[in-house]
């Protein structure tokens, strides 16, 4: 088979692939989005977007693996870069898929690539089930029978495990599916202290559970946490309102006062 020199390098490309490139925006071949090469070749199109020409001489679409990394190619063949793919995965500025990890009290949470609607199949926190279970274990080790993280299909509650006879259990934090908005309701009955890191203090676990709940459903949990804490502590730098939803990161938030607690309604962007 005849070969031709690649653009900007001495990489050789099958003439068949070059011929195909004349029928698509791809016009030259060189180092790809992350400067890696394998059996196939990355091709820079006339539209300044990257395409992948396989070893068989055909331009690829969908998910491909190149040098141990995964890339998403649209139906026209161009590589997704610095965005969330149509099936909900993050890719960096070089096009490679990556996960966002968040450490909470030594437990690793995988942050979703986008807001997880309440109505999706399974729990909104299914991907965080194991991490939530690990956090539950840390709570039990720290507080014994005093505090419990209860994980259900429609809600997660952080509450008292045992109470005196005739006294109802206190739920410190609760995240519940709100099917009406395809989002969630977050109930708060504790003071949230983001700077508390002493694992002997209940406040440290209070905030850890709060952060874990948001990290289970939002792709921007830090921003969402900042907005809610600011509102809960009467600073309200994000302008969270009782009358209308306010955009925060990948979702919208509204506040409602309860009887001795606050309720935050969190839903996807309308």
From TrEMBL:
It comes from the Bacteria. Keywords: Repeat, Signal. Cell wall-binding repeats lie at residues 60-79. Gene3D superfamilies: Cholin Binding. This is Putative cell wall binding repeat protein. Residues 1-30 form the signal peptide. The keyword Signal applies. It holds the Pfam family Choline_bind_2. PROSITE patterns: CW. The lineage of its organism: Bacteria, Bacillati, Bacillota, Clostridia, Lachnospirales.
